[in-house]
Amino acid sequence: MMTGNIRHRVTLYGKKECCLCDEAMELLERVRASVPFEIEKIDISGNPGLQEEFGLKIPVICVDGVRVFNYRVNENKLRSLLTA
Asked: The pTM is what?
């Protein structure tokens, strides 16, 4: 059973002017309305290391430091990861 003070961290790696990144953020906010978690958004623009790692695969979504999605977020899978 999950206690109220345990909270997952979801990190979105993306950049401005990215419609898939915007869609992913909207979905994260929608899920967060019913399943509390922290969202961290990291802009890979201007960071050569992140650009090399993620490149054109954005948005990249990590849950608790583990990469789980590239490009699109599966809402049902995300909910199951956050409530497990």
From this structure: 0.89
The residues, ordered by sequence, that sit 6+ positions from 77 with a Cβ below 8 Å of its Cβ are 68, 69
CB atoms within 10 A of CB 3: 6
What percent of the chain is helix, strand and coil (3-state, nearest 5)?
40, 25, 35
Residue 2 has pLDDT above 50, yes or no: no
Cα separation, 38 vs 43, in Å, equals: 17
pLDDT band, residue 3 (cuts 50/70/90): very low
Query: Look-up: residue for tokens 């809402």?
Result: 75
| Structure-derived torsion over alpha carbons of residues 67, 70, 74, 79, reported in degrees to the nearest 10 | 20
